């Protein structure tokens, strides 16, 4: 365990004078301090990048769509049916898990990681594209998800946010990416830890990528950003939100390399890329430049994440101002490391699916609601 560094990492976000300072105090009273500073803490590059507003839409959207290029992952997601039937719900739940690991407290993040193994035990079957078996708890599948997320969040921060990190910050970011991987069934020795290693990782994946009709369909649906927005908006909001949603989708597409655009069957010109990027960068800068607007966006878009991001952004001192690694937290709170967790449940699910040819049990889903949000969406 280690004491946390300087808390005042976000001091430049709110700049609206003395009146703003009074309102900022009110905003601080809206949120409870977290029990501790999680795995990284104030001053860490992970908090800096993951709490920037680009992560909420473009970073997430880029990561999730690229994930579908793995046939095994695509098969698991399609079989579950949740993304197409409950896109808003899946957006909130996935965002909350990643926020717990990035900026949440160690107890909640560690338990969430343990529950995730149970939830992923349902994600087994036969991939209709390759004919092989898929397993959502597979270390290689989990590493693909992990790397697409951490790479996409950073890349969108660079493109639509403040720009590239310093060499030292980027080195820290990838080291912390490897630390966060301890929350999943990933083999720690397989995690890329440098920029060059990350590039090599994605290059090595190219021959394994496939864009089936279902993968293209899923990606196109997620690129309709409005499906992830809060429901039951007033009538006046629709004509305002739809252009913003389209702008966000175009921004995400502008970050795809050409070979991915070809796989997805998506066309967007270089001119469109060039126009959309500065527009979205200006929007993200505006959101990040005022804490009240920043809070309004997070609270409206993903309220289940706001209670994690806002204490970090506001610099609220944690009850216990420490950080620790996931491995230390797993030992402290009595959890197996994810790769070794819940073997009986995983064997039971395999017997049901591959032995008895029946659907897996839903054990773990109800328990997951406490940490990832209600199955019908995070209560508001």
TrEMBL record:
One of its GO terms (molecular function) is oxidoreductase activity. InterPro entries: MPAB/Lcp_cat_dom. Residues 47-286 form the ER-bound oxygenase mpaB/mpaB'/Rubber oxygenase catalytic domain. This is DUF2236 domain-containing protein.
